[in-house]
User: What shape does this take?
Amino acid sequence: MAKGKKSLEQQNSGKTEQFSSTGFILAAIGSSVGLGNMWKFPYVTGQNGGGAFFLLFVLCLIIVGLPVLLGELAIGRAGRGDAYTSFKKLGGSKWWGWLGFIGILAAFLIMTFYSTIAGWTLHYAVQSLSGNLFSNGDYAGQFTAFTASTSPIIWQIVVMVMTGFVIARGISSGIEKFNKIVIPGLLVILLIMLARTLTLDGAAEGVRYFLYPDFSQITFESALLALGLAFFSLSLGMGAMLTYGAYVDKNQSLPAATLAVGAGDLIYALIAGLIIFPTTFTFGIEPGSGPGLVFVALPAAFESMPYGNLFGGLFFILLAIAAVTSCLALTEVPVAYMMRRFKMSRSKATIWIMIAMYAIALPCTLSAGGVLSGYTWGGRTFFDWMDYITQNIMLPLVGLLVTILVGYVWKGSGEETGLSPTWMKWWRFSMRVVAPILILFIFLSSIGLV
Assistant: This one.
């Protein structure tokens, strides 16, 4: 509680908590390296032709992702507040503040269903390490039975408690310290898994599928998917990077930090692909088998490996770590708002946010295979609606607002980035023309108009 009071005093005196340079980059990488890289990226890549889609993903990351990331970090550092405060300050109007609040709401709602999947990964890690996961070969049946039981509720609570505990400890003592431990650990586990999968019999074929582009597989729809995935994988449009930017020291180079975060995101996605695709090709698994790839198809592959329970356990621990680091960034967004808006201590704001989140997260879990899964509206469950509304409407909308604020409204945006005159021209062109047009395509495609 003393830490919470100190944080409040810092706010009232015009000061904010801060990351160290290394701590910020690791926390930002932790935010971006989540289930988007480890769970969604592999199966979406598999559904869209492999190597050509990966190349498109990289191009979208560079052309749209990095410029918007730099814009969000600049808004956060200049505004020195939550998304509402920073948008209001730099936009010069309370209406801009309320537009920024959409990002806060997006992070809040994403956490309600993201914590469900994070809980699944923790359960599967324990089941794999104990060997119980491989007690029978009906992995689809196991997954269905698990999601229909009360176990997901318990694991979701575990995720919520872990997240709340770290957030309540603050920026340097909580989020930064946690990421300094787990992000290097995550890389170690990835490299161990990579070394194992590259020695599998079908590794060469899997690597070829992932890295050698076949452009005949590319469609306009897959190009938009690559653009949306690049946007989502960097945690853009949800206020997370903007909020983290508020804790960045003025001496920190934002372009260097942007490149570091983008490189980290790309490296983790690359390694994830080099783990997934050699495994799927070795054991005859369809690489585009959808969201069930991780929880249904891959356990069958781990069962066939020597020491499969160990490698399966490591893989799901890897997924769980990636999920929790993103949970921290998502939760910090509304917590930061509550602290400033209602003059709350960090610990009190965290408790209220976690309670409110769980009130919506519980029906998300119950509708993802549980007792509420039979109740649909417009063909979607409650879980599906939370996913659809946030990722297809709110994130592109906030991303578009960021480009408008930075490109047209806030006059000091270029100076805050610290870019050289030449690079600043390219960045402004991207934020004023390229990024808004492409983000608008994402939005129109996601709602079915393109």
In short: The radius of gyration is 21 Å. Residues 94-130 form the longest helix (37 residues).
